[in-house]
Amino acid sequence: MSAPPAVRTPPSARSRGRSWLGRLALRRIRRRGLDPSRLTFLPPAARVPLQRVGVDPVPRLAELRVNRPVHRLDLPFDLSVYLVTGAAEARAVLADSAGFSTDVRHLFSGTGPATADDVGGLGPTDPPQHTRLRGLVAPDFTRARMQRLEPAVEETVARALDELAAAGSPADLVRHVAMPVPMTTICALLGLDRPDEQVVSRLGTRRFDATGGTAGTFGAVSAQRRLLFDAVAAQRRAPGDGLIGRIIRSEGDAVSDAEIAGLADGIVTGGFETTASMIALGTLVLLGDPAAAAQVRDGSRRDVERVVDELLRLLSVVQVAFPRFAREDRDLFGTRLRAGDVVLVSLSGADRDPAWAGAHPDRLDPARSTRGGHLAFGHGIHRCVGAELARLELRIVLPALLRRFPDLALAVPPDRLAFRRLAFVFGVDALPVTFRGSAGTP
Questions:
Q1: Ramachandran region, residue 168 (left: φ > 0; alpha: ψ -120 to 50; beta: rest)
Q2: C-alpha span between 231 and 226 (Å, rounded)
Q3: CA-CA-CA-CA torsion sign (45, 48, 51, 53)
Q4: Which of 73, 121, 225, 413 is most exposed, with the fewest beta carbons within 10 Å of its own?
Q5: Which of 59, 54, 169 has its CA nearest to residue 418?
Q6: Coiled-coil ranges per the record (predicted)?
Q7: Which of 107-116, 296-305, 398-407 has the lowest mean pLDDT?
Q8: Could you tell me which of 286, 304, 300 has the C-alpha nearest to residue 410?
Q9: Could you tell me which of 439, 440, 432, 442 has the C-alpha nearest to residue 167?
Q10: H or E segment at 236?
Q11: How far apart are CA 380 and CA 216, in angstroms?
């Protein structure tokens, strides 16, 4: 007896309406662009590279890396966005500045909380402008400059540890150490005043929070840019001793206030929140690994450097690199891209790739041997210009902290920590710690 023919249920009026609205929205997006400063939520598929379980990326990233390291995200309106999770694929995309652009200004409609004028700095800029702008800031991040900066960072760390001790146990390591150390360092480097430091600190946290989509992020970007623009305008009249003043004195009107503000914004963005997160999360990981903590506390400078580098790989707090836009139709590891398609590189996913990192990539292993280095600072021409400054701060603060407070411990169970649930820069809002006393100044 044959089965009765299947009966096709006609689509409901509601589903037909949704389909029609989707096509209408897609036509409008393609005509006017998808303004990221107006997005008040992130679709579920876009959240995967921003989510974690404790300090680890969600298992879904590893699944994608194994099955499809270049994966098209299931986004509404048929948007073409691809997520790259494999280490080799990520490195290839990040190095290909000829095939991909990082300039996002074409997406802004001008009607949202931020406009194309608010986009500046090195990250979203292509050569030759990127080459010219990077040349302006590179002298302040040379190895020789970092060596001269080391005593000032040591003094900053010592003051922060004094403040932690004065706060008494338990105290919040984020508030007293993780945030003030990089913020003080960056403001001194740029030549910003202390009141500016407090404002920039608040905006730096808001701009990486994606829980409300990207609208809040770009709102914070716009506010921070205005603050820095005012600081540059003031130094145009009376140049200070920091990077902003140096550029003004050496370049004069050849560099605009907007360009300098964009560079300063990029340095604050890359040098504050990221390093603050690494100090807090790095401490958290070390408190759970006595052997690695002992290596940091009692080991040689080289020992400390190896642990710091492995912490950078393991945590990869910058979760996703600047979006890349395909310049033309092309093949990407077997996936066909069209010109304008967006490629997102999961740095946290790529840095846990066993094909590159070796066995047990989810463990902290200071003896790990990897080729080519991790991607925590990016790769290619957009590799973080302040990478060595971040290394310097971590190399100073972590040993000093563990020597000053040899009995440092978490004040709460790890599962009660307030990890950021959806952030472009992963972190923890507070890290309560206990300590019975101090072993003296480091």
A1: left
A2: 9
A3: positive
A4: 413
A5: 54
A6: none
A7: 107-116
A8: 286
A9: 432
A10: helix 215-237
A11: 29
- Residues 33, 108: Cα–Cα separation, whole Å: 7
Q: Which of 195, 224, 190 is nearest to 208 (CA)?
A: 224
Amino acid at site 219: G
User: For residue 159, how many other CB atoms are within 10 A of its CB?
Assistant: 14
The amino acid sitting at 158 is A
356 vs 92: CA distance, rounded Å: 13
| Radius of gyration of the chain measured on its C-alpha atoms | 23
Nearest-angstrom CA–CA distance, 166 and 181: 16
Separation between Cα atoms, residue 11 and residue 198, nearest integer Å: 56
Of residues 345, 299, 304, 317, the one with CA closest to residue 419: 317
The 10s digit of each residue's pLDDT in 151-183 is 999 999 999 999 999 999 999 999 999 999 998
pTM, two decimals, is 0.86
**In the numeric block, which tokens belong to residue 438?**
């101090």
Q: What is the mean pLDDT of the chain?
A: 84
Architecture of the domain spanning 19-434: Orthogonal Bundle (1.10)
